[in-house]
Specification:
By secondary structure, the chain is α+β, with helices and mostly antiparallel strands. It is 47% helix and 18% strand. It is built from 12 helices and 12 strands. The strands form 4 sheets. Strands 6-9-8-7 form a 4-stranded antiparallel beta sheet. It has a 3-stranded antiparallel beta sheet with strand order 1-2-3. Strand 7 and strand 8 form a beta hairpin. Helix 3 packs across helix 4, helix 6 runs antiparallel to helix 7 and helix 7 crosses helix 10. The longest helix is centred in the last third of the chain and has 33 residues. The N and C termini lie far apart (98 Å).
């Protein structure tokens, strides 16, 4: 039985049912429904109510939902003549201080997602509700490829600001609930490497294979699913966010090193392996790519930088840390005046006798 236009509210794990509410524009005479289940597949997205039931059922269940330190909007544009259909692009500084992820769409179109960091103030033109103001800004600053700026301006003002969240979980199955987490409920991610949908489809494929291999024995399939997919889901989110730096300087360094590696691989393929990120579209598992990027030290360096920047912004935005001008002056005085004085005093105490004798 299908229940369209229905919102799931709560999972009653004890009675194996989902409490759901039909959507009704008038909100009159609405009666919640109890939908019984044998097996519950939590494919209900980043704000999953199935995942909420994991939290209340398992004391050892850990998950975090956090943003990707950015905001932006997306527009749909006609495929330009000089861009090949199916092209995926990452464009740094597409607009001043902004990055664009360009994905191919059906019907000879491109999905152009534009975003910037939370700690950067958006210019007044992009905040405008006047499509002409936005269109003029794009005409002046967008140079990546030809777009209809008037159409972009209309789309821009008709939508709100978007944010992207990420989800990490330490397991995807619950035997007491008889439930699984799949897709964004298990591993919502930012789109940096374009593997979110592929990983969700891989979840479904893995579940199908497990059911075939174990003759629909869910007692075996449930824990096996976590064993196979948790490493892939967590690798997805970390590769997406921790192979692209929030620091422009570090990102340039990463890109230079990546290009050097690609060039060396072409010259010396028996010595230098291909870049792991280039192997993902060729079928390399995300967990294997994560392992190799960790061995190269990329994950650790970028994670340290990104986490520091996000934490620093949070502390300042909520008032835990202030930009105190007087404190800044005192720190500079200590660094440039007092530290040399202390060093001079230490040298005098340690070596004063020897110096006076000479």
């Amino acid at each position: 039985i299908s229940h369209y236009n229905t919102k799931a509210l709560y999972v009653d794990g004890d009675n194996k049912c989902v409490i759901a509410r039909p959507k009704n524009e008038s909100n009159v005479n609405i009666t919640d429904m109890n939908l019984d289940y044998d097996i519950l597949l939590g494919c209900d997205g980043i704000r999953s109510i199935v995942r909420n039931a994991f939290l209340s059922t398992h004391r050892d269940f850990e998950f975090d939902l956090r943003g990707s330190f950015g905001y932006g909007k997306s527009v749909h544009v006609a495929l330009p003549e000089d861009v090949e259909d199916g092209t995926f692009m990452i464009i740094n500084e597409c607009l001043p201080g902004w990055v664009s992820f360009v994905l191919p769409e059906s019907g000879q179109k491109l999905n152009v997602a534009l975003g910037t960091r939370l700690d950067k103030e958006c210019c007044v033109e992009l905040k405008s509700s006047d499509p002409k103001v936005v269109a003029d800004y794009f005409r002046e600053h967008w140079h990546a490829f030809d777009i209809d700026c008037d159409e972009v301006g209309e789309q821009w003002v008709q939508q709100g600001w978007n944010t992207v969240g990420q989800v990490h979980c330490n397991f995807y199955h619950s035997e007491p609930l008889r439930a699984l987490l799949l897709g964004d409920a298990a591993h919502a991610t930012c789109p940096n490497i374009g593997q979110g949908m592929n990983t969700a489809l891989a979840d479904a494929s893995a579940l199908n294979s497990l059911l075939n291999d174990h003759k629909d024995d869910w007692d075996v399939v449930l824990p096996k699913f976590s064993e196979l997919r948790v490493k892939e889901g967590n690798a997805l989110t970390d590769l997406s966010f921790h192979t692209y730096s929030l620091s422009p300087g570090q990102q340039i360094t990463l890109m230079v090193r990546q290009n050097v590696r690609i060039a060396l691989n072409k010259l010396l393929p028996w010595i230098v392996d291909r870049d792991p990120m280039y192997e993902i579209p060729r079928g390399m598992k995300l967990s294997e790519a994560y392992h190799r990027m960790s061995k190269l030290g990329v994950i650790q360096r970028v994670r340290r930088n990104n986490d520091d920047m996000m934490r620093s912004h949070f502390e300042k935005s909520v008032g835990m840390v202030r930009d105190d001008e007087s404190a800044g002056i005192m720190n500079k005085m200590f660094r440039y005046v007092m530290v040399p004085v202390f060093v001079a005093c230490a040298v005098a105490v340690l070596f004063g006798d020897k110096i006076s004798q000479q």
